[in-house]
Amino acid sequence: MDETGLTRTDLGLFLELSAIDPELPAYRRLFLALRRSILKRHIAGGARVPSTRTLAGALGISRNTVKSAYELLQAEGYLVSRRGAGCYVADLPEIAPVHVDGEQASAARSAWEPQAPPAQNPSYQLLQPAVPALDQFPYRRWQRALQSSVSSPRLLAGDPQGDARLRQEIVRWLSAQRGMQADASQVVITSGSQQGLYLVANELIAAGEPVALELPGFPGTERVFERVGAQIEHFRQQDLDDMEALSRVKLMVITPSRNFPLGHTLPADRRLALLNRAHEKGSWLVEDDYDSEFSAGPALSALFSLDNRERVIYAGTFSRTLFPGLRIGYLVIPKGLVDRFVALRRIIDGGLSTPAQVALAEFMANGDYSRHLRRMKRLYGQRRQQLEQLLSNSALANLPVIDAGGGMHLCLQLPDSWDDHALAQSLVKKGVSARALRLYDSAGRPGLVLGFAADGAERLARGVQLLEQVVGPALSGR
Ligand SMILES: Cc1ncc(COP(=O)(O)O)c(C=O)c1O
Questions:
Q1: Is the pLDDT of residue 13 over 70?
Q2: Whose CA is nearest to atom 7 of ligand 1?
C-alpha cells in the first residue's frame, strides 16, 4: 500500500466519529485513532504509514504530534520501522473489537507549593532500588490532604471495597494515562500490589492448579502462588510465541508494560495473542503494573485496555509513585468477579484505614498527584543520566547496562562466572543496597540492580565510589 492508502478522509472521519475525548493531548488522540484503525484492519498489516510530514500536512496538525503518536505505536508494537524505508504496520493476530476510545484528560488544579523538608533523613541505603525520591516528596501538600481527611464520619469503618472517591479518582487516572475503560465499581483498594496478588491467588487458584509466572520477576509473586499450593511454571516474554507450552495454565502473571527489573515491553502482537489464548481457554491474565509509571517516553497503554472479554485483572500500587510506607494499591477486576473479591476482602480485614484513602483521593483530585509524578519523571531521568555518567567514568565503565532505560533503577550486567548474590552481600556491608539480578531470575545472567531515584548527586557519587571499591578489584584481576 502506498502512503495515500491512509487518506485524510479516512482519518478525519475517524477522528470525528470516534468517541475520543477531545481533552486528551493531540498525540494521544491520534495514537488512539491509528491504533483503532490498525486493530480494526482499516489499515492492513504490512502497510506503510505516511511520513510524519505527509500526515501532519494532511491533518493540519504539527509534525511533533504525529511523531509522538508514531513513537508510541512503535513502542507498543503496532508499527515497525525499517531502517531507511519508513514505518510499517505490524502483522497482528485478529481480535474481537477492543476498547480503544475515550480517555479522559486528568484535571488541572491548584498552584504547586515548595516542598517542606523531611523532619529526619529517612534511612535507606545508597543505590537502593524501589525507593522513590523521598527528599522531594511534597510533604506539606500531603499533610494538608491528611488533615482534611480526619473528620468524625471518617472515624467509622469504611467500605471494604475501598473509599468510593478514591476508586473514582483511580479510574479517572487510569483512563487518562493508560487508556483503561473501567468503572469505579470494578476497583478494589488493597494494601499494595502484593496484597492484590494474594487476593487473586486466593480467590482464583486452588491447590494443584497450574499458573505461569514471568521471568525475570518479583519473588513476592512466587511466594503468593506457592502459598496457595499452585503448580508453578515460568515463562519469559521473549518466548511467548510458543503459546502451546502454556496451554494448560489457569492464570498468568505478567508485567506487559515494563518488566521488573529489565524494563522491556510486551509488543502488541503478543498482547493480542495472549488475550486470544486467555479467551479460548477461559484462563486469567494478571497484569502487574508495579514498575511502569516512570518508563521513558509516553505512558504505555495497559493490557487491560485491550480486553473486552473480561480476562484481565490489573494490579496497581502507589508504592513507587508516592511512597512504599503508604501501603495502598488497587486491583481493577472484571465486573463478574467483583462480589467474590469484596467478600474475600471482608474476610481478610474488612477494608483499609479510611483517613489514608480519603487523603489520597483528595491528593489525586486536586492535581497534586499528577504534578508530583511529572516532576519525579523529570528528576528520575536526570538521576539516571547522572548515574550512567558516573559509571562510565569509573572502573565499571565496561560493564554493559542491559535494561530498557527510564524507571527508577538500572541493571548492570556482570561477567557470567560471577556470583552476584555474594557481591550484593559485600555491598550491603558497605552501605550499598544493590540487588543481585539473579534474585529475579535464578537461571539468568548475573548482574546488579542499582536504584537511582532516591539518591541526589552526592549520594550517587558515593554509591559508585563504593561499587568501585568492591567490584573494581575483581574486574582488574580478570
Ligand atoms: C513487580 C512487583 N510487583 C509487586 C510488588 C509489590 O509492591 P507493593 O509495595 O505495591 O506491595 C513489587 C515490589 O517490589 C514488585 O517489584
A1: no
A2: 193
